[in-house]
Amino acid sequence: MDISIKRGAPGKIKTACIVAAVYSGKSLGECAAALDRSSRGGLSRLSKRGDIRGQLAEVLMVPDASGLEADRVLLIGAGKRSGITAAEYVKLTRKAASAVVGAGLKNALTALTEVAVKGRDDSWKIQQQVLAFEAASYRFDEFKTRTKSKAARFTRLNLLLADEQESLLADEARISASLVNGLKLTKDLANTPANYCTPTHLADQAKSLGKQFKSLGVEVLTEAAMEKLGMGSLLSVSRGSEQPAKLIILKHNGGPKNAKPVVLVGKGVTFDSGGISIKPGPAMDEMKYDMCGAATVFGVLSTVAEAELPINVIGVIPATENLPDGKATKPGDIVTSMSGQTIEVLNTDAEGRLILCDALTYCERFEPDVVVDIATLTGACIIALGHTTSALMSNNDDLADDLLAAGQTSGDRAWRLPLWDEYQQLIDSPFADIANVGGRAAGSITAACFLARFTKKYRWAHLDIAGTAWRSGKPKGATGRPVSLLVQFLRSRLESRAQEG
Ligand code: BES
Ligand code: MN
Ligand code: ZN
Question: What would the mean pLDDT of 202-206 be, rounded to a whole number?
Answer without folding.
Answer: 98
